[in-house]
Amino acid sequence: MKKTIFVLLGLSLLCHPLTTTAQEKYAIIITHIHGGPNHQLLKLSWNDTFLIWEMLRNRGFSNENIFVFFEEGEDYSSTTEYAQRYKPDNTIIVDYSASRRNVRSVLNCLYDGSHDFPLINENDFLFVAIATDGHYDSLGSSSISLIDTIMNDIEFANLLNRIPAYKKVFWLQNNNAEYFADNLLQENSIFMFQNRVEKIVVADDSICIENEIINDSIYYHSEFDYHLLSALTSFSPDSLNYYCTPLELFSDADLNQDSLISIHEGFDWADSHNSTNIPFFMIDSSSIDTFTSIEYPTLLHRNLYADETHRGLIGISETIHVPSGKELIFKENSKVYLLNDAELIVDFNGTLIIEDSVQFFGNENNTIIINGNIVIGEGVSFNAANHDNFFSGLYLNRPDLESSFIGSTFNKSGLTNFAKRMNIYNSQFINCDSVRSFRGNITISESMFNNSLIYCTNTANNNQLSTIYDCTIYNNKTGIFIERYGFFNIYDNIIIGQDSSYLISEAININNSGFAISTLIPYSSISNNILESYKCGLLAYNSNGVILNNTIQNNQFGIRLLGTCNIQIKGNSDAVTNTQTQQIKNNSSYELYATRLSIPTLVRYNVITDENSLTVCPYVYYDYNMSNNSRMYDIRYNCWGDFFYPYTHLYIVSDNFTYSPMWCPSGEIINSQSNAEYLYASATANANAGNYSMAQTSYKEVIDNYPTSDYAPSAMKELYRIEDSVGNDFFTLKNYYQTNDTIKEYENLSKLSQTMSNLCDIKLQNYSDAVNWFEERIINPPSFQDSIFAVVDLGYLYLQMEEVGAKAIGSLKQFIPKSKKKYDVHRSELLALLPAQIEDQHYAINSSAKQGILIQNHPNPFSSSTKFQYSIENEAFVTILITDHYGKIIKKLEHGKKMKGLYEVSFKNTTFASGIYFYTLIIDGAVCDTKKMVIIR
Predict the structure, then answer these.
(1) Is the CB of residue 95 less than 8 Å from the CB of residue 103?
(2) Most exposed residue of 256, 588, 766, 913, measured as fewest CB within 10 angstroms of its CB?
């Protein structure tokens, strides 16, 4: 037997119980019919006992939770030649003989949880099927017949009634079964039976064949069991899905077509197809039969009309609404299954209350949508219904909602937030793809993310805060993505990638964020994190803030500052050991990379090194090439390690670094501040204190008095940040950028002023001017990085215009994002192309053979098609080669013999992946010119 029947050994039932709080389904099947081993009714009772057990197993009951009492304690087919149909593979069904002592003992154990039996609690479901001979005496007492004696209805009821299962369903086939109902029925109980006074009523085959014929032998069934089993399972015992004719499908019992057969639907089918003259009955003590099934004891399939409270195992089979003013409560420890394509929608002013440790299960078509109120207890979990699926999960849609998740678990399940505030504490997210927030102040702390991205993009476009701290993140994709947040504060996290060769992945990715100013929050920051084993440790694009005291190591790239960032990279000047300051080390390609307008204002008190003595990659790479630029890039007071060679490890396209004196952690404090730095720091202090006019005056003094310092470009950016937060006079600011004499004189400032003026146009909603500016840079880019940023920023502008209902304009329609998700992918692919370290002259050009030139393709970058022109000086044979980033020829265009002149070539891309490509003009077999083009998909 599968369960030990210890009670026969006389053991006490007062042992310490094994308790459980999980929701479970339990079943008790008791069968005893007087007669020999080959008696027809005994065979019938075995057939139906087996089928009931089979139904329960198929409806999610574990074998350990089905307690079968059958005759002498053995499967009927184990001792007799019998059809294989009734011999389960490698499983013994029967647990105990159908004796009074066994029934009493097991029911006592299920009540108190003794002897390692489960303790049935108030959340559980109990199904009881009885098929025995019975008696009814003159005193009004009924009884069931067992192999050793009888058990009267009062004793049987007393044993069952004290078991506190939330719901109970009784399925009785014993004599005078109706008399048991008076004693057994409690709240949330359903009692089904066939009223009879003699033996089990055998299906009579009078209308349709209701018994099975297997190998010319008849396998009998009771009339009641045949119809009820067939309706609840949608199949007859001989595995037919119809009754009589294919027109009467057993699935037709599913009247509301929610793919589940409720007790009410199953009983109605059985009763309407009863071919005997002995009626079927159902007594429902609480009118719950419509909302109860064998598989999901509580079945929700229609909108609430009043406040409802449910516990235990709950199935939601159709989309239901919690209307305004109504309240739906899921009690502690419940399990809630969203089925089919069902959604649970809480309407405005409706309320969903989820008590502690409730578990939700669903698939990609199931969603819990909160347009009203939600209260979430501790330890709540959201889970995919199976390993191969994903649960769309929870959508918080109400703009003024505040929600908290404490100790929650999301397992292959989504969480999407559009609410005012969301707090997540001590929770875990496993294989969730991403936790997505599109609005509000976000705080995530002391939580674990495994293959789950934290994605926060603020579509509300106001000065909100995203705070993430004390989290552990293991992810191949980006760990934390922040966009359009006025403030961000990311600290004390451990973010470790699983494969640094993954094409697009950053431990932290910050976009268009950090522009807010507040007297409470001096600056946005990323501090004291461990960022390891990603493609890039930290990427910032068009963002402001401070990178402080992190450990950024063993990535392919350490820090990448792109677009128009205003970032400071600071360690701890008081550090005595390397671990007490910021370490940017052992990243395989470079430690710090910055494009022209994102070169950091301050890089100080950091350990920047690569312990691999053979590395030839630069530690610091500033991607800056200006013809009239006299800047010296200040990277003094950093520790460069034992293998530092400045002419190898400090790289810039033009001009030089100032790297001495160097500093390493020793306890020695160095106080060295230039006049430009002092004035800039004074301006920043005034801004943080709310003295904005004084700050603006000081920033302008930095620009006028120290135009070649690192602080002049940063001061220009800070003027924009102040205006964005507290001024909003972007017309005057734009005029300042365009007319200030110092800015116009110095190329590094004048180039920046073009970008800052365009940002002012966007704030002024001069969308036509802004779009034209981006398109001009795409068509005629000053540099490769400028073309990349123009495409990225134009797409971002179109998304902003869409939010305010502005119509898309411009001529380069291919750069209008099809969706935010596709835009994110394209942006990542484009930014991953930087730096373009392969020279434009991809092939060695023979100057003596310079008989023609190429004109840059348009548009560039492009997705599906582009055009480029070439001119030749004399009649010649022309070939154009297209090669990939590594010089491999991937397409050859033969243009034949051409006369002197200008020609245009159309190129359509159907197969090439995103990346850098080169097209080369070959005249009479000689390479004449090569240019670069970028494909995005």
Answers:
(1) no
(2) 913
